[in-house]
Every structure is written in structure tokens, then in C-alpha cells.
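Example 9 (inverse folding). The structure is encoded as follows.
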């Protein structure tokens, strides 16, 4: 009110009402207030006419923060600066939202604009260039309609010498991270484990959306040095191991033609990367197990606490709401054949011809095939036990399960587990 009226104008309206020249409705309309507010003003005027005023005086500053909070902001900014100055770290800019989140964990409640203001005033500010908008976008209407899958290779902690791979799977509709794991090596087996986790916990989606990495797609000429290449095979004529798992589960696949086309998974990557690297540096994380704990907490924050900038919803709430409304395209994972187990689906595969002695040769190792029909092909389903350094091999001919065998992993060096 003090911005709309002078003191004399308010008094004139009050006097007009008291002399019954103006009705209550007209007086309220003139002052743009409701009934309770009007009578509170009227009471103040009638009881203390000489002291009455419409000026608004604050009892204390409302936009200030404590000296401790201000000091904590500068400390966090200085830690970020050290990460940016380290050329080995995948950090190029300050993350003011991450600083705000870290301060909240320490008991300081500040806004992002406050952090940015302190950054600008203390030379901790780097303007980000405007990104180029891409013209290819995937739009989905149901959970499980499309899952985006990718990996990212970075130095996740300055206290761990080697770079690590982060493998993730995100639901395109809800932006829920269904899988996230840090591994030392990117190989087909780690990507198959990601499929296994998603399928057993959520079900089989309609389609996957990876890039064109050789693990996911065979491309003629590019993959000419791979073992399964022959001149007569063209792009997509060969199904890589990862793709064979999808086919067994009835899941389709669409490939991203550019990095920009995978923006919905790249943006969460950047979000995770910014926070994990910063936390690892500030807490001096020195082990893979410690990094995995940080990843688990960060993914939980992303899935259950953060409102997504595009959907304007928290991912887990958007996902679960669609499930409750029976709008999911996930289908339950189930085994189709008699004697089939999960190791027959989530595995590496090979095919060999059984010789007249009911044996096959795999990586130079002779294996006996129990009950195998000679001179016919046999399907091998191979699952590694990393702790025991053994490989379990299950033999199938058609729909018939023949048996299984164990072999030392060191005897099969070319099989990429």
C-alpha cells in the first residue's frame, strides 16, 4: 500500500468512510484491500490519528546472510577454482547449484543468486557460452517406451590415478536414472550387466537408444578388424553380443546419429559429473568403492529430490505416477524355454561345431559337450565369475539344454569379460 498511496490519500478515504460519504465496498475498492485489512487500518487511524502512517519499516534486513555462511560460500568457490585450474579434471565452470546443495548439507541455507553474487564480487565467475540447439529430439509418452543408454569416461577423482567409465541408463519419459555404475573397463560384459539390472528391476522396455559404439552396433569398414567381420557382411548384418541380449528379450533398438541427439542422457551425465567430481575432490575419495558410494547418493538426489528442468517434475514421482495410471510400456522379464536360467540370457555367446568325439574347441581349449549331436552346431552361453576367475559355459543345441562346464578365465584371453 505504501507504494500505491500517500498518507494523505489513505486518510482522505478513511474520513470519507467515517462521514458515510463512501460505502465500505467503495472504500475497500479504492484502497485495493479486503475487509479484514481495511478495518485494521481504520482501527489504527481512529486510535492513533497523529501517529498513523502507511510507510513500511523493516525491523531487520531480509536479504542478508551470516558471516559464517558468507565464509562458507567463499570456501566452496575456492575449492571449485582449484578443480577448474586442474587441467586433468573434467571441470571447466563453477557449479553454483552444486555449491548451494553442499552448503545446505552443512546447515547453511542460501540461494543460487546469492552464491553467484558472491562469485562475481570475488572473481569466482566464468560465463558459460550459449550452447547450440539441436534439431533432433526424441519425444515419448510412456515409461519404458525408450531407454537411453551410454557411458562416460573421465577422471572422477583427482586422488584416483586412472580414469573410470560411468555406465548409465535413463528412462526417456520420466528422466529417471534406472542404472548407474562406475567401472574400470568398458566392455560388453559390463553393458550386459546394465541390461540385467534394468530388466530384472523394472522389466523389458519397448526400445533402447544407444550411440553407434562397436559394443552396440556393427558398422561395415569401421569394424573390419573385429573377429566376426567378413567382406559380405554389411552394417547391422552382425548382431554384437549386447544386441543379442536385447533380441532374446524382445527389445527393439534405435541408434543415435549424433551426440546432440542424445541430449537427455548427456545432461544428466553432466549433472552427475559436476557433483561427483566435486565431492570426490573435496572429500579426498581415493578408492573405487568410495566413488561408488558418492555415485549412489548423487543418483538418489537426482531421482528423488531434484525437479527436472524440462518435465518440471521430480523423476521418481513422474515415473511412479505413470505406473499407477497403467501407462507403462515395460513388460515383465520371463524365461521362455524349459531348463533356461538367467545365465542363458545375460551372457556372452559363441557357436561351435561338435566333432565326432563330442568335443569343441574354444580359444584353443578343448571342451567336452555332454549329449551333443556330432557334426552339428552347439550354442555356448558364457558367464564369468570375476571373484573365482572362472567362466561357466552352458551348452544348448536348438531348444535342448545339454549341460554345463567350468573353465579358467585365463584360458580364454580373447573373450572380453
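The amino acid assigned to each position is listed next.
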Amino acid at each position: 500500500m505504501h507504494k500505491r498511496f500517500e498518507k494523505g490519500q489513505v486518510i482522505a478515504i478513511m474520513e470519507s468512510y467515517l462521514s458515510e460519504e463512501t460505502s465500505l465496498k467503495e472504500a475497500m475498492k479504492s484502497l485495493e484491500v479486503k475487509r479484514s485489512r481495511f478495518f485494521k487500518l481504520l482501527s489504527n487511524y481512529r486510535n492513533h490519528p497523529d501517529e498513523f502512517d502507511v510507510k513500511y519499516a523493516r525491523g531487520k534486513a531480509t536479504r542478508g546472510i551470516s558471516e559464517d555462511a558468507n565464509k562458507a560460500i567463499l570456501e566452496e568457490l575456492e575449492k571449485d577454482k582449484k578443480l577448474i585450474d586442474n587441467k586433468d579434471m573434467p571441470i571447466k565452470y563453477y557449479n553454483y547449484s552444486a555449491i548451494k546443495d553442499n552448503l545446505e548439507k552443512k546447515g547453511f541455507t542460501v540461494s543460487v543468486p546469492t552464491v553467484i553474487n558472491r562469485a562475481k564480487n570475488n572473481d569466482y565467475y566464468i560465463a558459460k557460452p550459449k550452447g547450440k540447439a539441436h534439431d533432433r529430439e526424441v519425444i515419448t509418452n510412456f515409461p519404458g517406451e525408450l531407454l537411453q543408454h551410454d557411458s562416460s569416461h573421465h577422471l572422477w577423482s583427482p586422488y584416483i590415478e586412472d580414469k573410470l567409465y560411468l555406465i548409465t541408463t535413463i528412462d526417456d519419459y520420466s528422466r529417471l536414472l534406472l542404472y548407474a555404475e562406475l567401472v574400470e573397463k568398458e566392455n560388453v560384459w559390463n553393458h550386459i550387466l546394465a541390461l540385467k539390472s534394468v530388466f530384472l528391476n523394472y522389466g523389458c522396455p519397448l526400445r533402447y537408444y544407444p550411440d553407434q559404439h562397436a559394443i552396440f552396433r556393427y558398422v561395415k569398414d569401421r569394424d573390419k578388424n573385429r573377429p566376426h567381420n567378413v567382406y559380405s557382411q554389411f552394417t547391422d548384418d552382425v548382431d554384437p553380443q549386447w544386441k543379442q541380449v536385447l533380441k532374446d528379450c524382445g527389445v527393439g533398438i534405435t541408434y543415435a546419429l549424433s551426440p546432440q541427439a542424445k541430449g537427455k542422457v548427456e545432461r544428466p551425465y553432466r549433472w552427475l559429473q559436476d557433483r561427483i567430481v566435486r565431492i570426490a575432490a573435496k572429500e579426498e575419495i581415493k578408492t573405487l568403492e568410495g566413488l561408488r558410494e558418492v555415485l549412489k547418493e548423487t543418483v538418489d538426489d537426482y531421482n528423488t529430490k531434484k525437479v527436472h528442468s524440462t518435465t518440471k517434475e521430480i523423476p521418481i514421482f513422474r515415473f511412479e505416477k505413470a505406473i499407477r495410471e497403467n501407462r507403462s510400456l515395460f513388460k515383465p522379464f520371463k524365461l521362455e524355454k524349459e531348463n533356461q536360467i538367467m545365465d542363458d540370457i545375460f551372457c556372452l555367446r559363441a557357436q561351435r561345431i561338435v566333432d565326432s568325439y563330442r568335443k569343441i574347441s574354444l580359444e584353443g581349449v578343448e571342451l567336452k559337450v555332454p549329449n551333443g549331436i556330432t557334426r552339428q552346431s552347439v550354442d555356448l552361453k558364457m558367464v564369468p565369475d570375476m571373484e573365482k576367475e572362472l567362466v561357466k559355459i552352458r551348452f544348448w543345441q536348438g531348444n535342448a539344454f545339454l549341460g554345463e562346464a567350468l573353465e579358467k578365465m585365463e584360458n580364454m584371453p580373447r573373450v572380453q569379460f
